[in-house]
Amino acid sequence: MSQIALPLEQKPSSEQGGYLVTGANAEVHRHLQNWQDWAHHTLILTGPEASGKTTMAAAFEAESGGFCVDDAANHEDTEIFHLWNRANEEQKPLLLLAAKPVADWGILLPDLKSRLAASLHLEIGTPDQAMIDGLFQKYFAIRGLTISEDALRYLEKRMVRTYAMVRQLAQKMDSLAIETRKPINLAIAKSALGLFDAGDEKMDT
């Protein structure tokens, strides 16, 4: 029986909280659960591509009823400034998401600089092994598939440990499994890793 390719990017179930929690993001998770304690009702959350910021923010919004701004670094100073003031006036939490720290946002409004400097800043850490394994397993569980233990251990020793690379490899293995009609095992993992050029700066082979 042939398999039909489906997109990996699907919403996780609410039973999972929407995202995985390991040592890489445990502190962020704890603060998102305790938004009542944020300094000036504001949390600035930074993290690399595909690290789960948007999914964590969606869960936060649903639970807290607060405000959230994605890609805050590219919003106008006045927009962020007024929203910061509104959050404090209404006693509602404000979550600002960005790929880079506030110092690199190019903020020109002095009052906004001082307000954000006084707010809580957190960063999602580099994925640990528990996070990498969990993300692979979750990607394939959504598809009703599994990835073998030896495939995980093979990738563990050879892949660049980034969230984006987990996603790229998961998608590559998924495509190979469909093409070859084979399970996601060690052979598929080796083939997926081998498809990246040896000189590709994203991959350490």
Question: Care to describe what's here?
Answer:
The protein is α/β, with parallel strands linked by helices and about 200 residues long. The protein is built from 8 helices and 4 strands. The chain has helices at about 25-35, 55-65, 75-90, 110-115, 130-140, 150-160, 165-180, 185-195; strands at about 40-45, 65-70, 95-100, 120-125. The chain has a 4-stranded parallel beta sheet with strand order 2-3-1-4, sandwiched between helices. Helix 5 runs parallel beside helix 7 and helix 7 (about 165-180) packs across helix 8. Residues about 1-15 and about 195-205 have low confidence and may be disordered.
Note the topology.
Layout: H1 26-33, E1 42-46, H2 53-64, E2 67-69, H3 77-90, E3 94-98, H4 110-117, E4 120-123, H5 129-142, H6 149-158, H7 163-180, H8 186-194
Parallel strand pairs: 1-3, 1-4, 2-3
Helix pairs in contact: 3-4, 5-7, 6-8, 7-8
Q: What is the mean predicted local confidence, pLDDT?
A: 88
Q: What general outline do the C-alpha atoms trace?
A: elongated
Q: What is the strand tally?
A: 4
H/E series: HEHEHEHEHHHH
| Rg on CA atoms, Å | 20 Å
Major sheet description: 4 strands, parallel
Count of helices? 8
Low-confidence stretches: 1-16, 197-205
